[in-house]
Every structure is written in C-alpha cells, then in structure tokens.
Design brief:
The complex is a heterodimer of chains A (about 110) and B (about 120). Chain A has about 110 residues and is an all-beta fold. Helices cover about 0% and strands about 55% of the residues of chain A. Chain B has no helices and eleven strands. In chain B, strand 7 and strand 8 form a beta hairpin.
Chain lengths: ~110, ~120
Amino acid sequence: GENVEQHPSTLSVQEGDSAVIKCTYSDSASNYFPWYKQELGKRPQLIIDIRSNVGEKKDQRIAVTLNKTAKHFSLHITETQPEDSAVYFCAAKTPGGYNKLIFGAGTRLAVHP
Amino acid sequence: GAVVSQHPSWVICKSGTSVKIECRSLDFQATTMFWYRQFPKQSLMLMATSNEGSKATYEQGVEKDKFLINHASLTLSTLTVTSAHPEDSSFYICSAKSRDSPYEQYFGPGTRLTVT
C-alpha cells in the first residue's frame, strides 16, 4: 500500500524566513496531494493541494511543488508569521476504491518573532 | 459549505463501557466517510472507510468488533468503541467526501475520548 514519509519532524524559523517541508510517496499511481495545518486539539485544515497533472501551485505565501518522477512533493511557506506555527501534514490519495488519504508523520513548525 | 460536525466533542468513560461518536455532514451528502485516530503528537491513522448503506472497510490491525462503524444515511456515520480501555483514549476524527468532489475530504472537529 501507499507509504508517505515527511521531513523534517520539527522546523524552527525566524519570522519572515521561508519554511520548506518535504514528502515522498511510494505509490506512483497516487494522484492527489493535500497539505493540512493542524493546531492543537483542532481538526486538520486544508491549506493547499495539488493534483498529479500539475507541477506547481501557489496561493499567496504558500506553494506546493510536485515531482512525479521522483515521487516527491514539497510545501513552501514564504514570509513566515508566528500564526503559521502549527503541525503540518502532507497526504497522498490512493487512486480507485475509496480514495483513501495516507498521511505523513507531520512537521511541527515554530515561527519565532 | 462542506461542513462536518462531530458529537460529542469530548467524552470520559469508564473502562469496559461503550461510547458512540457521531459524524454528520451538515450541508452535503457524504457518499464516503472516513474515521481516523490520532494519538498525542502523532499523525492521523486511518481506521476505516464507510460507504452509505454498506459495511465499513477496516484498515489492517483495526479490530472491527471493537470499533463498530455504521453509515446509516448519506449524512450520518457513527463509530462505537466497545468495551473501551485506557489505551483507546485518543482523538477520533471523521471526514467525509461528497459525490461532487472526487478528491477533497472535509474533516470534523474531532472527539477527545478519555477512558478511565
């Protein structure tokens, strides 16, 4: 089955710096890759997603890139702010069947003022 | 749009008792609902997938007799933790997918279960 690895597990940056989180997936047939932000005790919030027919997508300070050949996808946050501090999860959707999402282990991002 | 609710938001129960958690899609019909469990400082682990009117499909290692899932309608799925034990204490989150969205899942706010 699909396996998603996420790095780093923790990331500490200064306000205004950029943050990059990377994920790799194992099933080359996976076709949808969302990123979620989760604050303590809350539901995961979709912040950006990308489908397998697109290489890059941007939404204001957030961007996601996908390299299907290498089975990598990355989240880029520019001009980080303290309110960006949270746990970020990547996920990959397996095709067919019930469209399950397999999550990475998560990255705890701390943005220091 | 695309709002999912869960009830209760938190529950404390004694060891050996059963607890039911409800997941509702409020403004769309959920063809598929998913149940996840999240232990502190860990990722979301998929427990099972349910389609309306059919039996749930459980992930490997999840005991179907312990975690009973019923997807009775296009807006409601329930998870019953039977004979709960302290190790079942966790954050349980559901998500739902509509027939109109082949990709995105909409997450509920989660239920914090503590078994004493």
